[in-house]
Model the fold of this input.
Amino acid sequence: MIIRKAIMSDTESIYKLLSKYAKEGKLLARTYPSIYENLQSFVVAVLNDEVVGICSLAILDRNLAEVRSLAVSPDYVGKGIGKALVKQIMKETANLEITKLISLTYQIEFFSKLGFNVVDKNELPQKMWKDCINCPKLHSCDETAMLLNV
Ligand SMILES: CC(C)(COP(=O)(O)OP(=O)(O)OC[C@H]1O[C@@H](n2cnc3c(N)ncnc32)[C@H](O)[C@@H]1OP(=O)(O)O)[C@@H](O)C(=O)NCCC(=O)NCCS
Done:
């Protein structure tokens, strides 16, 4: 398995994985234009020429970034791929000289194992303004905010 930056021919796999889990309410879907626009922020896990996992990094402020669109193909969960993807995103965050990495998630145990700690969503004002404001769940957000000091 390799982890590499996403390229244009990965966009169908990215779209399909996000759409699948969005239908289950596990993450937000993305349109193709949104995937194209943010393609440089994605990393993919590839096994036998197949994209089996994806993750993106969104910069929210000078010292705040977010793990977004993390998904591992159902046939490949539980094999360390999600962990490898987030570790790559952690490396990229550090390379950008950003020390705070957040996740809004239902996967508390998964992110805890990677060193993230639960924080009060109200401690993330920039995040609220830049992203949540456009989210359909704005007034009924049930995700947990987790923070890692990279
Ligand atoms: C959440 C998800 C990305 C995890 O990916 P994965 O490849 O299965 O996770 P890994 O195999 O790398 O697991 C890493 C560790 O977290 C644990 N873990 C993974 N998912 C877990 C879960 N749902 N509950 C508890 N622990 C979990 C694993 O047991 C493993 O522990 P270990 O290091 O002690 O062995 C994957 O299940 C997924 O795509 N889910 C659907 C989409 C989603 O919920 N995305 C997250 C949006 S923030």
